[in-house]
Amino acid sequence: MDNQIKRYILFGIFSTVAIIYVVRLVVLQLMDDTYLRSAQQNVLQEQTIYPARGLIYDRKGELLVYNDAIYDLIVIPEQVKNLDTNEFCRVLGITNEGFLQRFEKIKRGVGYAPYRPSVFEKQLTIPTYAAFQEKLYDFQGFYVEVRTDRKYRHSNAAHIMGYIGEVTDREIENSEGYYRMGDFIGISGVERSYEQVLRGKKGVRYILVDSKNRTQGRYKDGQFDTPAVAGQNITLSIDQKLQALGEQLMMNKVGSIVAIEPGSGELLALVSSPTYDPNLFIGRERGNNYMRLLKDPAKPLFNRPLAAPYPPGSIFKVIMALVGQQEKVLYPSTAYGCAGGYHMGGLTVGCHPHPAPLPLRGAVAVSCNAYFCNVYRTVIDNNAYPNAEAAYKKWYDHISSFGIGKKLGVDIFGEGKGFLPPTTYYDKVYGRYRWKSSTTISLAIGQGELGITPLQMANATAIVANKGYYVTPHIVKTINGKPNPNPEYQNKHHTTVDTAYFDVVIDGMQDVIERGTGRIAAIPGIVICGKTGTAQNPHGKDHSVFFAFAPRENPKIAIAVLVENSGFGATWAAPIASLMIEQYLTGKHDTRTYLLDRMLKANLIHKNDSATTQIVKH
Predict the structure, then answer these.
(1) What is the model's pLDDT at position 608?
(2) DSSP H or E run through 534
(3) How confident is the model at residue 96 (pLDDT cuts 50, 70, 90)?
(4) What's the maximum distance between 2 C-alpha atoms anywhere in the chain?
(5) 439-490: pLDDT as tens digits
(6) How far apart are alpha carbons 233 and 198 in whole angstroms?
(7) Is there a contact between 237 and 267 (Cβ–Cβ < 8 Å)?
(8) E strand or H helix at 480
(9) 242, 290, 478, 549 - which has most CB atoms within 10 Å?
(10) Which run of H or E residues covers position 188?
(11) What are 103-141's pLDDT values in tens digits?
(12) Rg of the chain over all Cα atoms, to the nearest angstrom
């Protein structure tokens, strides 16, 4: 009996609740027209709240990139009613034809739907924004959306930071609904590589708008709104002052500077010249400026440090010295003569006058071509291998372990591999087993088919400084104050050359600066180890090349400099590297004014080499 009473009670409760809901619905739908009138008079707008993009700092905490508010005019096509087109166009400063063109473009956009917001006009000027706000009640279906564009505190480091631009249709399709037409996305540099980190997360605000396009307040007091989440801030590994000096020194020159902290792989400077002001890629003129830069014959958009392969010239002899020792065909005491160069049959590789014969250390110091041609010959024609091809494969593996001929994995888009010719390359040219050391002897001195990017040159310098290993070069030091989580930027990549073979080569590199071909790079009180190079260029004057690290004990900086079509390594590349080293280690670069003035005043760009447009920083 008790159970039956309980069932009656429960049935009564549920029945009462059901009756209450039915009565309430009847009252709302048949007797109370408040909600009906509200629905007829108000329109619900879903407005995107754009997050602030993450800020970018240099390694010392100096702000490099920040945000600035911009105003976009948004339209919801199905809500556009009774529009006075002439007045609308007058306020916006466009023609009726332009009005129709914009609507057609919106309709052709990916994911278009009449009920979805679309960008009608980007980046209104402040006066236009103010005028539009005053007339907004006349333009039903339109509203202004606030978001941010980038601002750059300095006019340098454009190739590092990159820029943002509008998303493409493909990027919209691949974004799983995150991007829509008119949104910004990282196009190059760290803006592209770290887009997911920097962009943040969009929010949504629901607004009630009446028939006169006047805001009536938040829908349900913001109950269904979601706040935007700002992007994460990143700290770059570059030193802003060092970067700025590098770009100054490379003005009116074509080439690259790459500086790395050897122990960590952090990039301290990455200079591509000619360059451009990153502020050209903000605002309404970004598209026009991009096209002007794209058409400039000097190719200021081309990231030379990452993508341009060059013959390294004599700096490659340092690596040859290490490989020869590892292959047990070269010892510190090994000496070769030099009768004006290397001679074999009808083959001659010329060399400059210097004392001879020399042991390994001395050969590095004076950069003897004959010496390193003999080293290469003994490696490739080594009887320990069945043929030259097998020996070359071993040589190839050694060179590859220095990060040459492959992408290093730097966290900036656009890295190139360079070119380290495999055996198949020579098999195709000469036929299998029909080539040997004399066929490829130019590789001994960093010439021939060999192509190395400036980033790879600097990385090879860091390897020598570390006596046998490198950490993948990278540009982002921390994300929101925490170390870059990519494990590649903590791991050591060891070469195939034992640590024991580095000291004699480093001795020779120190001699280069103190008594050899690189004396101009010497800095009082700092022990620098370096190597000059003059890379033959089949398309014009030789390239000036230099790489070095300092100080010798506990190295803090490894650097590679290449100046195109400028002659000897000691003439331009070595002084530039020396000034950069001095700046980084001492905070000064003006103690040798004669050297600084010569570098700053030099113009090595021929008139026919560049359009020299005003917007390019030569």
Answers:
(1) 40
(2) strand 529-535
(3) confident
(4) 122
(5) 999 999 999 999 999 999 999 999 999 999 999 999 999 999 999 999 989 9
(6) 7
(7) yes
(8) none
(9) 549
(10) none
(11) 888 888 776 777 778 888 888 878 888 888 887 778 888
(12) 33
Q: For residue 615, what pLDDT band results from cuts at 50, 70 and 90? A: very low
- E-strand stretches of 237-299: 255-261, 266-273, 275-276
CA atoms in the 13 A half-sphere facing the CB of 2: 0
- The better pLDDT of the pair 250, 2 is held by 250
Of 132 and 577, more confident: 577
Tokens of 525: 């009180």
Answer yes or no: are the C-beta atoms of 475 and 265 closer than 8 Å: no
**Sheet of 557-563, strand order:** 266-273, 255-261, 557-563, 543-550, 529-535
SS3 state at 472? coil
User: Quick one: pLDDT at residue 258?
Assistant: 98
What is the pLDDT, as a whole number, of residue 140? 82
Tokens of 556: 């803090």
Reading the block at residue 81, the tokens are: 């009613």
- Measured CA to CA in angstroms, residue 567 lies from 422, 537, 570 at distances of 29, 10, 9
pLDDT of residue 38: 47
Residue 376 banded pLDDT, cuts 50, 70, 90: very high
Find tokens 């991009």 and name the residue. Answer: 290
Integer angstrom CA distances of residue 461 from 178, 477, 593: 43, 21, 27
Q: What is the CATH number of domain 240-617?
A: 3.40.710.10
Q: Are 163 and 101 in contact (CB under 8 A)?
A: no
User: What value does the mean pLDDT of the chain take?
Assistant: 87
Helix (H, G, I), strand (E, B) or coil at 500: helix
Q: Which residue has the tokens 């120190």?
A: 510
**Pairwise CA distance, residues 275 & 522, whole Å:** 28
For residue 191, pLDDT beyond 90: yes
Give the integer Cα–Cα distance in Å for 18 and 592. 92
Q: Given the structure tokens 């690189």, which residue do they identify? A: 518
Rounded Cα distance, 78 and 17, in Å: 40
Beta strands in 101-224 (DSSP E): 118-121, 142-152, 164-166, 184-186, 203-210, 215-218
Cis bond upstream, residue 357 (ω within 30):
yes
> What values do phi and psi take at 233, rounded to 5?
-80, 145
CATH superfamily, domain at 48-236: Penicillin-binding protein 2a (Domain 2) (3.90.1310.10)
Q: Look up residue 420 and give its amino acid.
A: L
Domain ranges for the chain = 48-236, 240-617
Element containing residue 316 per DSSP (H, E): helix 316-326
Taking the C-alpha atoms of residue 170 and residue 534, their distance in angstroms, rounded to an integer, is 45
Name every residue whose Cβ is closer than 8 Å to that of residue 290 and which is 6 or more positions away in sequence: 165, 280, 281
Identify whether the C-beta of residue 64 lies closer than 8 Å to the C-beta of residue 154.
yes
Tokens standing for residue 456: 């790879």
Q: Looking at the predicted structure, is the pLDDT value of residue 179 above 60?
A: yes
